[in-house]
Amino acid sequence: LLPRILALGHADEDEALILDAERFEDTDTSLGKPAIEPTARLIALTRMILAWSRGAGTVGPAGLQGPLPMTPAQAASLAADLATLMDAADSEEADLSTLDTLVPEELAAHWAETVAFLNILTEQWPKFLHEAGLVSPGARRNALMAQETKRFAAGSPHPVIAAGSTGTVPATARLLQTIAQLSNGAVVLPGLDLTLDAESWETLGRHPEHPQAGMAELLKKLGATRDDVMPVPGSVPDGPELARLRLASETLRPAETTEHWQQAFNDVRDRPAADLAAALEGLSLVEAPTAHDEAEVIALILRGCIEQLDKTAALVTPDRELARRVAARLKDYDLAIDDSAGTPIRRTLPGAFLDLVLAAVESNFAPPDLMALLKHPLTRLATPAGDIRRIARTLECAVFRENYLGRGLAGAAEALRGLGPKAPMTKAERAEATWLIEALQAAFAPLEDLFGDEEDHSAATLVQAHAAAAEALARDESGVGPLWSGDAGETLSVLLSRLIEEGGGLQLPARSYPSAYRTLLAGQAVRPRRPAHPRLFIWGQMGARLQQPDLMVLGGLNEGSWPKPQEADPWLNRPMRTELGLSPPERRIGLSAHDFAQALGAKSVVLSRALKVEGVPTVPSRWLQRLQALVDAAGLRDTLAPAQDWVAWARDRDTIEKF
After folding, report:
1. pTM of this prediction?
2. pLDDT over 60 at 540, yes or no
3. Which residue spans within 579-633 are E strands per DSSP?
4. CA-CA distance, 333 to 336, in Å (whole number)?
5. Is the separation of the CB atoms in 349 and 432 below 8 Å?
6. CB 41: neighbour CB atoms within 10 A?
7. What would the mean pLDDT of 40-63 be, rounded to a whole number?
8. Which pLDDT score is estimated for 427?
9. Residue 343 burial by Cβ neighbours in a 10 Å radius (0-12, 13-18, 19+)
């Protein structure tokens, strides 16, 4: 029989796949309730925040004394922040009901306002979930983990292997502990550093930013030490692999023990750093002048890999802009690459089209916004695409490039009627332009009616009018529009359906709808199902943990990109997070450092960065700076240079032959 594989989920994933609940008996009440859908949660929180802003500002003499004006877009943004705090508290099993006890009374004047706002999470949100018969995603995951832990505690007739988890979620750590205690159970730890000296290992509790901090904490929870861990049979590293592991370990060792670098490779003077040279074999660094050049270099490197039979290659980067640039350049070579993170919904063809529809009505059909919409490929108005573009250009040249003072589509129609006989258009072109404006007025009529008054409307009504206008604009000459077709169209239709389904209780003026719409759709991505090249990939950090190609390109190795800066918590400072039992912000840096160290262990690795991004000089990633310092001290900086001058090749693409 084939093994049954289940995903544990991860605290830092936006959409974590978790254990299969269908196998469990419903002994926990939360298991019988579905988790609230993310869009529904966001809309519900937005509605609660707007209600709070209208009348919940009576904190006390030193606090708010009246309503706090807030737009729906601001409320939706705060709702996303609250959802993040909620997920963190559920994952780490923190009790938010003690928020009002975190600050002494003499310092609590401002904090009382924050606590009054966070009552949305501690009081209103649990009531809402109870009445709706739902639970939060984190609570349901914890319940499923607890049920699975209980089942394994009674023993298992089959071997059980838990592999690849760092155990940062307490519920996951308890499950790993139970599996480790089974006679036929095993826990496979990802990338445990067995070469780091004991002194440095003992300091990891003070360094959550270290890649091994999570592993050290997990071993304590399992009641084990590094001496209890044995390599998986067949995975013991040989000479070059062991040297690379030592290099990664020394590069990322805790700052307070970096004096051990002098002893890291004792043979530096005796045998010109033979061990370090072996570790650097297959490792190269490309520093491109600009982000444009970096993307071109990576595209050339990936393209070169497919010329070798069966060789695989992957770009690993948290920089989504770099990933999109590389994918676009590979398209020029007729190579479709699989990007595991997908494409932001607003950057897709239908997503940008819906955004332009809103921009046009929001600006009262200002010429730049109107012409951007008319030149979009999806704008058809039941007319061949070529005819629409031609008529739009005629309207632009005759009306909008003159002294145009009109407003709205009615103003454009009036300006068209007022053109004199010397206007740069024929009688037929004038008739076509008149038809175009009338067709736009008919398509936008439902949406314009809502934008024409100051009353509040439900979000569902606004979304329906928005979709109706877009459908009318995108309808081709056969009466069928391609707006909702394809991966992006299907994803967008599902998102809008959810907004219609859940937005009935959210009231807002039509003028506030565009910004609220963009905020609600922020972070949504389309993951295409089209066939891609089988040997080229673009992975995020999570995807790179689970697989290893022949060539690994680590791109965007600049501060602010890898690792990403840890922004201040909008609700809790560090002492408050510690008091509640939440992990420090540096934990995410530690997880990112762990991913970097794991990727650095690949047989062939290219490190890539841009010296300037949008004309601004960049700072190398802290991990790259450490690696360069270690290599420079050994006098081996030249060994990091790639065998080919990829930057020169990339820049040759923009040159032309002289005649």
Report:
1. 0.83
2. yes
3. 604-613, 616-617
4. 9
5. no
6. 24
7. 76
8. 85
9. buried
pLDDT digits (tens, 9 = 90+) for 70-127: 888 889 889 988 998 898 888 888 888 887 777 666 556 667 777 778 888 888 999 9
640 within 8 A of 283, measured Cβ to Cβ: yes
Residue with the two structure tokens 């299907």: 490
- Whether the Cβ atoms of residue 628 and residue 637 lie closer than 8 Å to each other: yes
What's the distance, CA 507 to chain centroid? 29
Lookup: tokens for 532: 């891609």
Pairing verdict, β 551-554 and 313-316: parallel
Can you read off the two tokens belonging to residue 603? 């047989």
The DSSP call for residue 232 is P
The helix/strand/coil state of 344 is: strand
- The C-alpha angle with vertex 198 and arms to 196 and 202, in degrees rounded to 5, equals 105
DSSP annotation string for 411-443: HHHHHHHT--TTSSS-HHHHHHHHHHHHHHHHH
Going by C-alpha positions, the residue among 47, 134, 74, 43 that lies closest to residue 502 is 43
Query: Could you give phi then psi for residue 25, rounded to 5 degrees?
Result: -75, 145
- Tens digit of each residue's pLDDT (9 = 90 or more) over 298-341: 999 999 999 988 899 999 999 989 999 999 999 988 998 888 87
Angle (nearest 5°) at CA 496 between 492 and 497 = 115
Non-local CB neighbours of 545 within 8 Å, separated by 6+ positions: 164, 190, 595, 598
Q: Let me know the angle formed at the C-alpha of 352 by 613 and 653, rounded to the nearest 5 degrees.
A: 40
Coil/strand/helix, residue 286 = strand
User: In which residue are the tokens 């676009």 written?
Assistant: 328
Q: Is 613 exposed, middle or buried (0-12, 13-18, 19+ CB in 10 A)?
A: buried
Quote the Cα angle for 81-86-88, to 5°. 95
Q: Which two tokens stand for residue 105?
A: 């009374």
Give the dihedral of Cα atoms 289, 290, 292, 298; nearest 10 deg. Answer: 50
Q: What is the mean pLDDT of residues 256-266?
A: 74
Cα–Cα distance for residue pair 196/597, rounded to 1 Å: 13
